[in-house]
Amino acid sequence: MAKKVLIFGSAGMLGRELIEHLSGFPDFNIFGADKNDVDIVSYDSVFKIIKKYNPDFVINCAALINVEYCEANPLEAYKVNSIGPGNIAKALGNAKLPNSKFIQISTSDVFGGEKKFFKESDSPKPVNIYSQSKFFGEKILEQESKIYSLKYFIVRTNWLYSKHRKTFVDFIYENLRDKKQIDVISDQYGVVTWAKDLATSIVDLMDGSAKYENGIYHLVSHFDRRLSRFDIAKEIANIAKAGHKHLKPSKRADVFKVPRPKSVVLVNSKLPRMPDWKKSLKKFLLTKLS
Fold first, then answer.
1. How do residues 144-176 score in pLDDT, each as one tens digit?
2. What's the pTM?
3. Are 170 and 164 in contact, with CB atoms under 8 Å apart?
4. Which of 14, 9, 2, 7 is nearest to 198 (CA)?
5. pLDDT of residue 290
6. Sign of torsion, CA 273 9 64 12?
7. Is residue 31 a contact partner of residue 55, using CB atoms and an 8 Å limit?
8. What backbone phi and psi angles, to 5 degrees, belong to 79?
9. How far apart are CA 57 and CA 228, in angstroms?
10. Span 62-93, pLDDT tens digits
11. Region for 240 from its dihedrals, namely left if φ exceeds 0, alpha if ψ lies in -120 to 50, beta otherwise
């Protein structure tokens, strides 16, 4: 019998990638739920849709991710990013679906401080409202899951890009194409991750969910060294054969109005390695260049 998968935030970048990828598997029946279908801040709304589908897997991609907006609207940020995941876990428990599994999408931004790399076991240190609200969402999910003996996986990832929404990658590529000078941050470190690759790895996690324990998992593109945004921009220029003369290094304090962590480089130490960041970036950009 096909497994039922309910995706919150299904109209977003990762939600759409997941639906596209899962649609290729006859073993899954996919149900999308966006903000027009459910309000994750409302427990009753969440419980109603959980009971409607009785899912075997729930993947929560719904979130407020605009850092400046979250800083200006902290209550809304905490409701969506913190209370929302807790409502889903509680609803799964009260719906008496003991075999259901919950995958919560979180972020590398929960980290801060001076460390260069972060494993799943490292302690978060949020530096703004967005990152703090996502971290609180993780903790509330853990607490609710313990109460209801719910199987859960918290998947942290880093700097996603996709055909479904313009991101840093598109911004750099389009400005290079138009031969415009671009200020690119050289003192913030992470790795770009293709949402298509992430969707594939999440489905692999679902397939192997019986052998994986509850907890936190990092899923990012494979890399061999720490990368700044400026390093990534230079690689985009290399792929596009655009040269580097339009790229100008800048400091994050001069660009961002809200504090950002210096390093958000995640180390994936618990799940199979994802594809190399350069190879995935080239595949993605070649669709624009063709």
1. 999 999 999 999 999 999 999 999 999 999 999
2. 0.96
3. no
4. 14
5. 65
6. positive
7. yes
8. -65, -50
9. 35
10. 999 999 999 999 999 999 999 999 999 999 99
11. alpha
Tell me the C-alpha distance between 144 and 139, whole Å: 9
**Which residues is 103 bridged to in the sheet?**
59, 153
Q: What are phi and psi of 105, to 5 degrees?
A: -90, 120
239 closest CA partner among 191, 278, 187: 278
Three-state SS annotation for the chain: CCEEEEEECCCCHHHHHHHHHHCCCCCEEEEEECCCCCCCCCHHHHHHHHHHHCCCEEEECCCCCCHHHHHHCHHHHHHHHHHHHHHHHHHHHHCCCCCCEEEEEEEHHHCCCCCCCECCCCCCCCCCHHHHHHHHHHHHHHHHHHHHCCEEEEEEECCEEECCECCHHHHHHHHHHCCCCEEEECCCEECCEEHHHHHHHHHHHHHCCCCCCCEEEECCCECCCCEEHHHHHHHHHHHHCCCCCCEEEECHHHHCCCCCCCECCECCCCCCCCCEHHHHHHHHHHHHHC
Rounded Cα distance between 173 and 158, Å, is 19
| Angstrom distance (rounded) from CA 133 to CA 142 | 14
